[in-house]
Design brief:
It contains 3 helices and 5 strands; from the N terminus they run βββααββα. With 90 residues, the chain is of the alpha+beta class.
Length: 90
């Protein structure tokens, strides 16, 4: 599953043409962690809304405002990786 919605500037090209970012979201520790909203969490995990809110061990949501929540991308990606590890053990 790829999520290619962000563009980055490539200094090796002429002009200000943006180039596509990597196919997978980056969650490197040295970068500032970004918050993702429910639609992106659903795309990354293939889980429904209820499962995201109720699955034990799933990263906790952060309240951004009265009607807005988000998840840390690094935590969601770590959870996805941990689920891959569980599948490989079975």
């Amino acid at each position: 599953m790829t999520l290619n919605t962000h563009l980055q500037h490539n200094p090796h090209t002429s002009g200000n043409k943006p180039t596509p970012a990597a196919n997978q979201p980056s969650a490197q520790p040295n970068q500032a962690d970004r918050l993702i909203r429910l639609p992106e969490v659903r795309k990354l995990t293939s889980l429904g809304k209820f499962a995201i809110y109720e699955t034990p061990g799933f990263p906790k949501r952060l309240t951004l405002s009265r009607r807005c929540v988000g998840w840390k991308l690094s935590e969601v990606m770590a959870w996805i990786e941990s689920r891959s590890a569980v599948g490989e053990q079975a």
